[in-house]
């Protein structure tokens, strides 16, 4: 289309009976650019902080596979994306000046030909969400690492994941993914992230605890070098170091590396080892065996088993069974459904370890219970059960 | 992803209703109208035979303009997600909400 001239603009003003004296001298002649109707452009409404991130040159990434809802990830946060409709038409115009900008620059052109780059009736809205990390553990659990001698590892036909692979498959920011890898004690073997199979992990832990016992080292001061020397012939050095990092706190004293062993985590692992061998245990029998099985100097406590084991105080004798929160569904409703299938009525104390991970920025355990459960009194204690009938 | 170097600042123009071309041809390349500002800074848009008065709004939540690199033309909640590039930021909008004032034309002045 031919560009409008000043004369044409003035003629239009006159026809419209607008007084040029009341207007700023510059006019923008708006036309639709060549790509305008193509739908290539869309708008994303930015939450606080994201604008500054973009201006600082950092990236935002949209992640999600075919069957997943898209999420937007900054370096360290994850957002759900939703389309918001307006009843208005939104036009995006490059190079369009505001009155302030025009006044500040008196030499601006008299006619500014602005091309509308695109238009839309809707835009993407963002809402901060929990990173979707359950898939991470599920991917790594496809092929847990069972040790260098395991025949399974010799075949290279199964899927293994590098950091880049995980970044493209997991709907979470890079920082959230790396943090979660640390939380689940994943380690990098040959450039791929792996989770240790539980049996192999216990084998490694036993090597270390037996060595601590035979050397009479204090649990708070286990020397890395000596461990690598003594155990290096039994297992790869990286694995020995990995198990120390997983079950101990690393520190340096006088230039040497030591580990303060984590009592709670070790006791918990021993409990899992005992519990996974049967459906249910007599509670008092279990407590006895458990205490005898942990390293000398460590004390077992039932609160170490939150999110790992479920106590039944209503049965005679009292029992304990394995129930791992990581094995439960990630979706809120599905999580509650499975919990109520396992047990009809829960006290808040019992259910909290199994719903704690569902709490987001604004949702507390109390809020979740209000939404997904119904409360009643049982023997003077407040209990929660399902809102819907469980078959 | 963000680009290296400063991001362009665009402006959003918000109009009521639909924008339709006078002729049935494509919008691309066609004129929308003239945008003026009064000395007080009020935007005035002349579109066809209408005058629209608006206001300049600083957006509480700025927008990023995303350009899709390949893939389906319209963004959708599910489906393969292509790579997007942030082309520009929008911190200001010109909001035209008032009813358009029709321009009563006489014989157009010869140019």
UniProtKB/TrEMBL annotation, chain A:
A biological-process GO annotation:
maintenance of mitotic sister chromatid cohesion
Query: Keyword annotations for this protein?
Result: DNA replication
CC annotations in GO: chromatin; chromosome, centromeric region; Ctf18 RFC-like complex
Q: Name one Pfam family in it.
A: Dcc1
Family affiliation: Belongs to the DCC1 family.
PANTHER family given in the database record: SISTER CHROMATID COHESION PROTEIN DCC1, SISTER CHROMATID COHESION PROTEIN DCC1-RELATED
Q: What is this protein called?
A: Sister chromatid cohesion protein DCC1
User: From what organism does this protein derive?
Assistant: Anthoscopus minutus
UniProtKB/TrEMBL annotation, chain B:
Check the record and name the Pfam families matching this protein: Ctf8 (PF09696)
> Quick one: where is this thing mainly located?
nucleus
InterPro entries from the UniProt entry: Ctf8
> Where does the source fall among the domains of life?
Eukaryota
A GO cellular-component term linked to this record: Ctf18 RFC-like complex
State its location(s).
Nucleus
Alphabetized UniProt keyword annotations: Cell cycle, DNA replication, DNA-binding, Nucleus
> What GO MF annotations does this protein's record show?
DNA binding
Query: Would you kindly state one Gene Ontology biological process term found in this protein's UniProt entry?
Result: DNA replication
Belongs to which family?
Belongs to the CTF8 family.
User: What is the protein name stated in its UniProt record?
Assistant: CTF8 protein
Q: Which organism is it from?
A: Anthoscopus minutus (Southern penduline-tit)
